[in-house]
Each structure stands twice: as structure tokens, then as C-alpha cells.
Design a protein that fits this description.
A hairpin with a 2-residue loop joins strand 19 and strand 20. The protein has ten helices and 20 strands. It is an alpha+beta fold and 417 residues long. It has a domain of 220 residues: 3-Layer(bba) Sandwich (FAD/NAD(P)-binding domain). Strands 5, 6, 7, 13, 14, 15, 16, 17 and 18 form a nine-stranded mixed beta sheet that branches. Strands 1, 2, 9, 10, 11, 12, 19 and 20 form an eight-stranded mixed beta sheet that branches. The chain binds flavin-adenine dinucleotide. The site of flavin-adenine dinucleotide has 40 residues, from helix 1, strand 18 and helix 10.
Length: 417
């Protein structure tokens, strides 16, 4: 067997986290080598290319959590990156609207979190809300002026250009199908015949990250469960109903639920998403079923616990998936003048959410070291916003394990015969 070419770092996954990791590694270590494996024929085809396009400000996340830290640092880094690379970005601000007295209590908690994370925001009353979003309902709102919208596929294209300029290898159509050890190296092989020996490996495989961990010989302590988020978009004549971003006060037990209005950086307004179990890891339509994927979710104890605890919320989301009238009703809570004829279906996205055996959704980002490997096992929203800061954290892990392995190699060479 011929020896596979050697690189310093192999990365599985060409979404925004994998690309940012490759770019940051090469920027920090000029002259080192990276090979990125992406199974699709183009980059950013899954979560990154199908998200809401929002640069989150960091108001929701527990102060001190990795989500909070990397969202704040990542947002600043992403804004600077977009300015340097001429990627479309607009800091348009958003409003989080409270519809009744009960939601005011929750809004106050979010405001406290925002202050804990030092995110500028302001409580506003009905009049100011009407100036910012004339068609929004609400008795009060939190105005977050720093929230923005961005072209994430554009960010990925710019990252790819930087990687290639720095000599990095981007292998498209290269599904990693085997990961093993080869002496002191990790060996990665793809379905289209690319093979590399690497000093370290990073798994950024999103919806398949738990399976890539298994491929490398690890065991899944959490499992990815795919939740499809379905969207409508406003027809051009109704786009005036939302000027920027209108969000509801999130339910603390399901922070990712709750439809909202999002203006897109290249035009148009998206409404949604809901969250229903996808019958395939990449199940972008109701009819897409992959039996292995479905079984993986349905046979999992964690999924049973989740379904048992939250069946009522789950049924509500399912109802909105099948009934446009129910979707419209949910949107009318935020924007009472909206009608079914204002909405046409838009492409869906699927969230990769790690679920524990006890049915708890993993809340924070989860990055795990295993030998010479770093596995990103939970990177849901706001991981696109946070991507450059997550990448910095991953590169620190990689640097530490490369330093340890060089230390080990030095010890081995120094050992007397
Ligand atoms: C509906 C929705 C809305 C969202 N809105 C926002 C938002 O507005 N703002 C925000 O900050 N975040 C948002 N997010 C979250 C954000 O999009 C994700 O957190 C982020 O894109 C994750 O990036 P990633 O690189 O980890 O995963 P992905 O973008 O999914 O990339 C993983 C890549 O790995 C590849 N891959 C998988 N297995 C293999 C293999 N074996 N070999 C080779 N390649 C492989 C896949 O093809 C894929 O390209 C949203 C997510 C969804 C789903």
C-alpha cells in the first residue's frame, strides 16, 4: 500500500465551522498544511447554507457559557472579516416583542442576560416599537441595535479563497468513509479515493458529527437528532410588513422554538422556522425518509424521553408543519395584519441538535478531544455567528495536542536504545 500524503491537519466538513477552522489554523501557522474533506460537490450545502442569515448579538445565552463567549467574540470577528472580504452584511437591529404581562417577565430575564453579556439593548414601549416596526404587535419590546444579517454562503466562499491562497487543500465530493490510526498519525480516506495521513483531525460534520466520531472509533454519548425548520417567505407586495427582524420572547424550555420574521441580506423576508423531527439527517422535505436515520432517532432512549416530556409542544410544531393556517396564526401573534396569501413556501433547513440519553438537549456548544482528534459534537445556532471564535477555540485544542504529540515524539527519539 502506497503511503498517503501527510498534512498537519485534516478536517471533515465544509460548513462554516470546518472552513473557519482551516482558515484560522493556516493564518496562525503559515506554512503548515491542511486537507479539508467535504462530501458535497460544493461548500456550505447544509446548515450553513440553509440558515436564517442572522448575526446574533448574544442576548439569550448564559453568561460565561461557550455560546455566550464565542457569539460575542465571533460576531466582532465576522463583522471585521466581512468588511475585509466585501461580504454583504447589514447591522439592522432586531426587536424581541412581549405580547402580554406574562411575556414581560420573560423579557426582563432576557434583558438581564443581555446586560450580563454586555450586549447593548434598550427596553422600548409601544410607540417606539411602532416607529421601528409599524406592523408588529406587542406591549413592549427589547431593541437590540447590534443584531445583523449576513450572507453566510458568501462568508464561506471568502474563507475558501483564503484557505486556497494559503495552500490548503479543499476536497469536494470527498465523503470521509474511513478514519483510523497509522503509527502516530490519523489516516482519513474518502469515498472518491483521497487519502491523507494527518498529525491531527477535526470533525466538523454537523448533522453527521456523531457518526464521524463513531467512524474514528469513538462512542456516541450524545446523538444528533435532526429537527427540520420550515419557512415561508413574504410575497413582494407584503414585504413592508417587516422592516428588519421581529422575534418573539422565547419559551425558556425551548429557546429555539418560536417563529420570527427575518429580512434577508439579499432581499426578501423569511418567516419561520418551526421545528419538527426530520425523517432523514438531510430531510429537507416531509417526504424525505432515510430508514437508517429515522431508526437512529426513534430507537434512541434520549428521543423517547424528549418526546414523552414535550409531546404537546411537538404536536403543535407538527400541526404548523401540515397546516398553513396554523403557521399563519402563529405569525399573526407577532404581526396581526399578515394573511395566508402573503406567504409562499421557502426552502427548509435541518438543525443538528445533540440529544443526551436522558432526553436533555445539549444546550452549549460541545467540543471533545480524543487522542489526536477534536470532535465538534454540538454546534447549533448561533454557531454560524460564532464560527470564527469557535474556530479559534478548536485551533487551541489542535495546537495543544500537536505540542503534546511533538513532546511524545521527542521523548521517543531521546529514549536510549
Ligand atoms: C434552520 C436554521 C436556521 C439557523 N439560523 C441561524 C442564524 O440565523 N444565525 C446563526 O448564527 N446560526 C443559525 N443556525 C445555525 C447555524 O447554521 C449552524 O450552527 C452552523 O451552520 C453549523 O455549521 P457547521 O459547519 O457545524 O455544520 P454544517 O453547515 O452542517 O456543515 C457540516 C458539513 O459536513 C459535511 N459532512 C458531513 N459528513 C461528512 C463526511 N463523512 N465527510 C465529509 N463531509 C461531511 C456536510 O456535507 C456539511 O457540509 C441555523 C440553523 C438552522 C438549521
Amino acid at each position: 500500500m502506497s503511503a498517503a500524503p501527510e498534512v498537519d491537519l485534516a478536517i471533515v466538513g465544509g460548513g462554516i465551522v470546518g472552513l473557519a477552522t482551516a482558515e484560522r489554523f493556516l493564518a496562525r501557522h503559515p506554512g503548515r498544511s491542511v486537507a479539508l474533506f467535504e462530501k458535497e460537490r460544493a461548500l456550505a450545502r447544509h446548515q450553513t447554507g440553509r440558515n436564517s442569515g442572522v448575526i446574533h448579538s448574544g442576548i439569550y445565552y448564559k453568561p460565561g457559557s461557550m455560546k455566550a463567549r464565542t457569539c460575542l467574540a465571533g460576531k466582532r470577528a465576522l463583522e471585521a472579516f466581512c468588511a475585509e472580504e466585501n461580504v454583504a452584511l447589514e447591522t439592522c437591529g432586531k426587536v424581541v416583542v412581549a405580547l402580554d404581562e406574562l411575556e414581560l417577565v420573560q423579557l426582563a430575564k432576557i434583558e438581564e442576560r443581555a446586560r450580563g453579556n454586555a450586549v447593548p439593548c434598550q427596553r422600548i414601549g409601544k410607540e417606539r416599537l411602532a416607529e421601528l416596526e409599524p406592523h408588529a404587535a406587542g406591549i413592549a419590546a427589547l431593541h437590540v441595535p447590534g443584531t445583523g444579517i449576513v450572507d453566510y454562503p458568501g462568508v464561506c466562499a471568502a474563507l475558501a479563497r483564503r484557505i486556497e491562497r494559503a495552500g490548503g487543500e479543499l476536497h469536494l465530493g470527498a465523503r470521509a468513509t474511513a478514519i483510523g490510526t497509522d503509527g502516530s498519525r490519523v489516516r482519513v480516506a474518502s469515498a472518491n479515493g483521497v487519502e491523507r495521513r494527518a498529525r491531527a483531525l477535526v470533525n466538523c460534520a454537523g448533522l453527521h458529527s456523531d457518526r464521524v466520531l463513531e467512524l474514528a472509533g469513538g462512542s456516541r454519548s450524545a446523538r444528533i437528532v435532526p429537527f427540520r425548520g420550515e419557512y415561508y417567505e413574504l410575497v413582494p407586495a407584503a414585504r413592508h410588513l417587516c422592516r428588519n427582524l421581529i422575534y418573539p420572547v422565547p419559551d425558556p424550555s425551548f429557546p429555539f422554538l418560536g417563529v420570527h420574521f427575518t429580512r434577508l441580506v439579499h432581499g426578501g423576508v423569511e418567516c419561520g422556522p418551526n421545528a419538527v423531527l426530520a425523517f432523514a439527517r438531510e430531510g429537507y422535505t416531509r417526504g424525505t425518509v432515510v430508514l437508517g436515520d429515522l431508526w437512529d432517532a426513534l430507537a434512541y432512549r434520549g428521543f423517547h424521553s424528549l418526546a414523552w416530556k414535550h409531546w404537546r409542544a411537538g404536536l403543535g410544531e407538527l400541526h404548523r408543519s401540515f397546516s398553513k393556517a396554523a403557521f399563519v396564526k402563529a405569525l399573526q401573534r407577532l404581526c396581526p395584519t399578515i394573511r395566508a396569501e402573503h406567504l409562499v413556501p421557502a426552502p427548509a433547513g435541518v438543525r443538528a441538535q445533540a440529544l443526551l440519553e436522558d432526553g436533555a438537549l445539549v444546550d452549549d456548544f460541545l467540543i471533545v478531544e480524543r487522542g489526536s482528534e477534536v470532535h465538534v459534537l454540538n454546534a447549533p445556532s448561533p454557531a454560524a455567528t460564532a464560527s470564527l471564535a469557535i474556530a479559534d477555540a478548536i485551533v487551541e485544542h489542535v495546537d495543544a495536542l500537536l505540542a503534546r504529540s511533538s513532546g511524545r515524539a521527542a521523548l521517543q527519539t531521546e529514549r536510549p536504545a
